[in-house]
Amino acid sequence: MSDAITAEDTMTTPRMRAAIEALPERKAGAQGVGQRMAANESPEGPLPSVLEAVHTAATELNHYPDYHCTEVTGEIAKWLGVGADNVVVGAGAVGVTQMVFSAVSEPGSDVIYPWRSFEAYPTIAALAEMRPVAVPLREDGGHDLDEMAAAITPRTRLILVCNPNNPTGVPVHADELSAFLDRVPADCLVLLDEAYREYVRDPDVPDGLHVAARRPNVAVLRTFSKAYGLAALRVGYLAGDERVVSAVRKARLGFSVNGPAQAAVIASLLAEDELLGRVEHTIKERDRVRSALLEQGWRVARSEANFLWLRTPDAVGLAKACAAGGLLVRAFDGEGVRVSIATPQANDAFLGICAAYRDAR
Ligand SMILES: *Cc1c(COP(=O)(O)O)cnc(C)c1O
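Above are the sequence and the pyridoxal-5'-phosphate SMILES. Below is the predicted complex in structure-token form.
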């Protein structure tokens, strides 16, 4: 008997979970130099007051952050007008989503979500080994809530509603949402992903917090990455019934919300007016850019978010033309291009490229 490594051993690699083997490796996106209009980020840098809070927190990098995120959770709860037991923060809304999946998934359980929608959903479902039930969007880019309700079975543990939907920008209205929720069993959690809530101006779109206040099986997901401009710091939160929140909190990895991030969120809440002023500019630009695109003859859904969805089978061609012009946008092959609303200059550059592309065809 020998401990020596044989040639045969070196040819065998460690066994991985089948769920991991089945996942494609995420390709590097359309990186490169250019104006970033592919990830729905805020086009503006951090406010001085937020930057200062991060600097101060950075002098404490040798210490662990608050494990329980007590202060930041309390401040968010106060700001939302709910109890601290109704809020749980996590490492980005994506991190919170993974916590939700960890909290509800059982082997062989189902998760229902619209498709096309946020790209993280299928990956997180696969990691949790939940069976994905992806229900195609309606022709207009909205959720097909009838089909989603019809897909519910006793195995369904989780339903995702993305309001407004990424990448189409199309919202779900209050009446259709409440008719849908009436069809969801009380023991099945509905996660209302409101990552773009601050950009919604359509009065018929419900505030998820009001919905969740009346329905314990509805929880709201929001983020500081978009309107609050903190994408790099990774903070999102879930608001809902305290029993749901408590379960989701158990699924959080210790210290996953870092100290500078907690400080930046607290400072951002104090600077809310300034940050929401920026949102107003983005909304004006969104509506201006959409009108111009419609005039050029593109099919563009009405968006309640900080991006627009141009439906075109030649998405890759258009994205390449944008890249050649120094703009990074997101192409979904054969479906459309999602462009984030950026500065007026960048938006104008995008309009110029679209016009030229249209004319050349
Ligand atoms: C951007 C986005 C998120 C989350 O972002 P985080 O940076 O992880 O907070 C969540 N849901 C949707 C639909 C998004 O577009």
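The radius of gyration is 22 Å.
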